[in-house]
Queue: 2 jobs
Job 1
Amino acid sequence: MDHTKRVYNDIFEMLPTEENPSPMVRINRLNPNPDFPLFAKLEWMNPFGSVKDRAAWTMLRDLEKRGEINEKRGIVEPTSGNTGISLAAMARARGYHMRAVVPNKVPLEKKLLLKIAGADLDVISDELCPAPGLGDGSINLAKTHAKAQAHRYAMPNQYENEHNVQAHLQTTGPEIWRQTDGRITHLFVSLGTCGTVSGTSKFLKSKNPEIKVIAVQPTEGHDVPGLRNVSQLGVSKLFDSSLVDDILEIEFRLAYARALDLCQNEGLLAGPSSGLIFEGTREIIMRDKKGLGVMIFPDNIFKYTSNMAKHIAGLMSGTQA
Amino acid sequence: MMTSYAHPEVLVSTDWVKENLGTPNIKLVEIDVDTKAYEAGHIPGAVGFNWQTQLQDQVRRDIISKEAFEKLVGDAGISPSDTVIVYGDNNNWFAAYGFWLFKIYGHKDVRLMNGGRVKWLNESDKQLVTDVPQPTPVQYKATGPHLEFRAMVPLVFEASKGGWNLVDVRSPDEFTGKVIAPPGMSETAQRGGHIPNAKSIPWSTAVAPDGTFKSANELRSIYIDQKGVDPNKQTIAYCRIGERSSHTWFVLKYLLGLENARNYDGSWTEYGNLVAAPIEKA
Ligand SMILES: Cc1ncc(COP(=O)(O)O)c(C=O)c1O
């Protein structure tokens, strides 16, 4: 593979690796601290549009290697959208079927994209009331399909699948180490399945235990697809608190405000989870004063225009003749 | 001292259900909040009842009539002498409502599967299937309605004056009137708050982290010692539409043995719409 020419035999050759890393771009106008250069790692540059390309590919390859999937037996997976979109596109291109189970709160753009990418879609109503022992409705429905129709479905289960962590241990971590020539002092991430934080942190801390890993979480009752408040983290079996130095809780509406700032001042068309990460980063670079920060920006804003309209006052005005 | 539930015979474990799969006079009924869950997979042999379209009268706001109950249950191949096991999603909310309905129409032996659908789902030795059973319909003769299980408005007014246990099982924000219904719920009310003299004991108080009911000792200590539910008084449980309160009603009546416990199925979507009814907030 010649990554300088960028001519590929199939889309999978474009997936990120240490030799073909997702790009890192410096924050200029929105960084108030000249002693703390900041880079955004643009995961939306991955071929299927988000950080979840990494986990999806590693989990899919594992199922293939173990002979768990074929043209009859496809995949069922609970997703807030991105994992599903990556998995559906990959699975269909390799001849497997795919069913995605999403919570109703997921933006319409993602539901449509899942269908466009070729997934069958189940939408489940969101949690009604805190309920002990229930876990998450979309995980439960996906498990039900996998159990009731084991001949039709294998379930990667990104919330428990160690390959989700492996993906970041093998790609995201080494990429960042190389792209910063080992000078990174702070890693800024968000928490969903926690594959990103666990894998990347494990790699970077093995290279330099002094590196600080800062995770952000939205306030409870939030509307930031892909992320979990600590109260919802129980389902993420991949979360390992020893790999995280700080967890910042941030008012979820700031995710949308900061995403807009990044779009309008840096030319970075970043999505809401990136916005939330950026808000947390700004807190820490004022606290820690000096360093070199890398923020993992999971996806771009294109899938969230309807959410932006909901959370950014005045955005809809003037959009109709 | 270890005490047991007042009526342990109305509760069965997932293991018990597994061991008794296929026993001719044991009938399984799944009742879910999410009416799609049954279709995706259910316990072998279980029929599915839809709480929206099959357990409620489709014209007036009421439980289904005796005739409709007889038809529903008879068509499911259930006889009055059968043992009926109900289970469902969301910690058995609507399964408990179904249990209550079976009691109202006099079914002798109805039991709840402890932990509901999620417990079964997460146990590796338990099977789920998609094929829907085709039972041979039978003639079902119900008795009742046995209205001693049900509270209607006049009794609720009586209870609101004090001297009863009035148990509000909704979330704290619904109790105080901060919200009228949980976010996204379509059934609502004109006013928020709670019935005077009600105690706030959210339904989930009764449930252990694994989704099964807490032990008799724990329930006794929470409901009676800490929250002050008086076992010698008459009791009414209510919520928003009567399903979460069926769950607590089951706990109060069958696990704690409060014989005079009723479920107020009209709940806040009735009470919070009544003109001139007294309401407390905060
Ligand atoms: C938009 C978005 N941001 C952040 C995340 C969190 O990444 P992870 O699941 O690796 O914790 C996800 C994952 O689902 C996502 O879709």
Job 2
Amino acid sequence: MMKSWDPRIEEMPKEDLQRMQYRLLKSLVYRLYSFSPFYHDRMREQNVHPDDIRELTDVKKLPFMFKRDLRDNYPDKIFTSTKDELVRYHVSSGTTGKPTVVGYTQNDLNTWTTSLARALTSVGLGRGDVIQVSYGYGLFTGGLGMHYGAERIGATVLPTSVGNTERQIELMQDLGATAIACTPSYLLHIGEVAEKMGVDIKKDTELRTGILGAEPWTDRMRTRIEDWLGIKAYDIYGTSELSGPMFTECVEQKGFHVWSDIALVEIIDPKTGESLESGQKGELTITILQKEALPMIRYRIGDITTMDDEVCACGRTHPRIQRIQGRVDDMLIIRGINVFPSQIEYALMAIPEVGQHFQIVVERKGALDDMLVRVELTKESFSDKINDIIQVRQKVEHRLRNSLNVNVTVELVEPGSLPRFEGKSKRVVDKRSL
Amino acid sequence: MDTQKFVIRQISIFSENRPGRLAAIAHALGEENINILAFSIAEANGFGVVRALVDYPEKAHDKLFSLGYNVAFTDVIAVRMKDQPGGLYEVAKVLGDAGVNIEYSYAYSGKEGAVLILRVDQVDEAIKKIKNSGATLLERSVFH
Ligand SMILES: [Zn+2]
């Protein structure tokens, strides 16, 4: 088994990597300042010239780019390649407003494929593996991106796309799929359908690896999938603006490696835009160092996470980004402190006395923000003694205070009484804006 | 001594402090023709626990559970109170001397005078000590 796709780059000493990043950043900035009206204007507004970029940390001087910039310039006004240089389009359906269009040159596709080739190799896949690609093929980047990455490492691709789950399971068995790439919820669905068909994925298939992403999931879900299906499950990350799925965890399963020669990662405070230290939680901001058709400088993806810049146990020197913990859009500011509903979700998961559903009610009491978290008391922890219940409430308040760094009032409610949501939850009632 | 016949099944119900919750519980039990013989409400800031003795505890539990209530059975005992001052003190002293803790208590007026419902941490021990002290324990069959 191959350990690294490109050991020279993947295990390059940090200083050399950073020198490489600096060179790439410098030439990117000069190119865009000279040839892209969009970036030229942005940099003029920010009063920064390419000559001001004298070391890697000078990236902080550059202007940010937002999703709305892509929408405002629909479909291709900020592309920096001509039409005859483009070889592909992908389109992401915006849930609000216009979709965003991403164009690719042949070099862009090569960079994307290389990124995935390294990633798939880092989870132990390669020649001899059969990779079932159960991401959607089409305008969505998941299917085609994974397809090319898997072919590049010499694996055999089984391009099943999404749907017709029983047939997917038959093919998985008949063709001996060793890995599957899909959303975690689709893999759970496959597991359930397989059980109904009398197929034990653990015993009756060759499956041992899952490359799962394109929707938020948790470590708890990972454990459940791994135990149930007898596979190793790896997180994959990417958005269409970055090309598509780009980065995965390595076998260490401690966050996904972002290849430094492809992308420069910053974690910033979403409120102030200030850069944060490694390990602090903030908004993921990415500069794609090698992209021709749709370059990205300091693109604010809106995902909240932390970065670990230590050399990984696998030997790779490239930084790791932890599992995405929330969206900037969901962020609440309580007494000046950033609070994410996902933090509450994680904290509650570790408290068996209450359920995982919750509701946040924010009010202004006098000059201060007051946050109330309503959770359901489970049947098992209900007691006829009022003090036992008060203790549960205190425990939840204590745990939430510790993980959020803000005072929280907890209200225990009857089981099943909180609203349930399909998909993206609306769990926050913010009465301050009324 | 057969202590079991003195063990009474109380149903305990978690309730948010919202108007109408108690009425809703009473209504649900009424629909099943379940009679509430005694009850008390313990309230804390934001929630309460309703404790009730009913004639059909299993049926009451199932009905409330099916409606989504957080409901549990609790073993309690019932002591007939002498109609004279100091009755409660005597019971408390007997149990205290035996190292039995009273978690909570509530009273109701039975047909033949006041009855004290006790929730203790050691039910068997409490029954023996109260019997030995000469006080009257009500049997489970009085309730259900
Ligand atoms: Zn690693």
